[in-house]
Amino acid sequence: MDNSAPADLAPAETATLARAVSRAPSVHNSQPWRLCVRGSDVDLVERTEIVLPRHDPEGRDRLLSCGAALANLQLAAQALRRDITTSFPSHGDVAATVHTRPGAAPARADLVRYRAIGRRRSYRREFASEPVDDVAQLLDTVEEPSVHAFAPASVGVLAEMLGFATRVFRSDAAYQRELETWTAHTFGRYALGAVDGVPEASFGDEPLPAAGLVRRTTPVPDDVRLAERLAAETLVVFCTDDDTRRAHLDAGVALQRMWLEATARGLAGSVLTQPLHLTGFREHLAERLGLPGLPQAIFRCGHPVSAAPPSPRLPLGELLAHDLPGRPE
User: Fold this and answer.
1) Dihedral Cα 187, 188, 192, 195, nearest 10 deg
2) Is cis: bond before 209, omega within 30 of 0?
3) How does DSSP assign 255-276, residue by residue?
4) Cβ atoms within 10 Å of 129's Cβ, excluding its own
5) Same domain, yes or no, for 144 and 111?
6) Are residue 223 and residue 292 in the same domain, yes or no?
7) Are residues 38 and 101 in the same domain?
8) Do residues 149 and 254 lie in contact, with contact meaning Cβ atoms separated by under 8 Å?
9) Boundaries of each Nitroreductase domain copy (predicted)?
10) Do 45 and 69 fall within a single domain?
């Protein structure tokens, strides 16, 4: 058999890819993507109709989410013994295209991360006091040259700025209405059978950084106490050389690969991006911390003390697109 020749993806293989993509993390669990399978190629389509004007006014988190979905798509294709290359159209709604052909078994590390896809959850709670070992190995999962990930040595400045952002978002009535709209009520007598949104059960009464998303009732610790809480966690800041569409996708890929590596090691994690959308916040943070680029996300991880609830997901049939007007040729 000539493994250099493309071979169309079978329906069962398409289903495997769709299931993997469906489990990717996304801003407010909005799942802003579609898949279009064309023979042996798979388009990851950005759903630009998903708009969060208060949380994500420029659509950065939407692209970051698509990058996380792309990481899952690549890992799933490799698990199917497909060799892959990825191209990035410069315009249109197709965020990336994964080109596949029959190939060899995946590397062990990629297979381990693929198997962690279904176990990954957003953990918006305090972690156990046990420290995270081998943080350097987590950082080594970042393979995108334009993405820089590092654990900040000092959290005092970060605490000061996150505390300010927390107070801003807590008092922003329009933001709070938007967050409530994207809260999925999935249990009790008022359950709505949601297929997207942040599950209500994932919210707690804890302050940052555990809270993740700031609601009206989220406690705001003083800067000293918040710094103590941040210092007790493992934090990774993801930065990029520039602020382009490709940079946002690459950051999402890097973040998801690290998150899956952490999951495979029995760790839990969640992402902070909310404060980074305040005007001037990222630039100011980059200047004060001496960052090597613009921050795109803050990843927190640690040892869980309880199970995180699963998030609702769109039916796989809605994930697969069959007609993409305007797709670049």
Assistant:
1) 0
2) yes
3) HHHHHHHHHHTT-EEEEE-GGG
4) 9
5) no
6) yes
7) yes
8) yes
9) 239-303
10) yes
CB neighbours of residue 18 within 10 Å: 21
Strand 294-302 and strand 268-272: pairing?
antiparallel
Residue type, 202: S
pTM score: 0.94
Amino acid identity, residue 124? R
Distance CA 294, CA 276 (A): 10
The string of DSSP codes covering 273-287 is -GGGGSTTHHHHHHH
Q: Which helix (H) or strand (E) holds 179?
A: helix 173-181
What CATH number has the domain bearing residue 280?
Answer: 3.40.109.10
Domain end call among 120, 154, 182: 120
Q: Which CATH number characterizes residue 26's domain? A: 3.40.109.30
Q: How far apart are CA 185 and CA 196, in angstroms?
A: 10
Structural domain boundaries, residue 58: 11-120
Are the C-beta atoms of 100 and 77 separated by less than 8 Å?
yes
Tens-binned pLDDT, residue by residue, of the chain (329 aa): 455 678 999 999 999 999 999 999 999 999 999 999 999 999 999 999 999 999 999 999 999 999 999 999 999 999 999 999 999 998 899 999 999 999 999 999 999 999 999 999 999 999 999 999 989 999 999 999 999 999 998 899 999 999 999 999 999 999 999 999 999 876 554 445 689 999 988 888 888 899 889 999 998 889 999 999 999 999 999 999 999 999 999 999 999 999 999 999 999 999 999 999 999 999 999 999 999 999 999 999 999 999 998 899 999 999 997 654 444 44
Residue 321: other Cβ atoms inside 10 A: 16
Same domain, 92 and 203: no
3-class secondary structure, 172: coil
Structure tokens at 190: 């008022």
Cβ pair 146, 241 in contact under 8 A: yes
Q: Is-contact 291 237, C-beta < 8 A?
A: yes
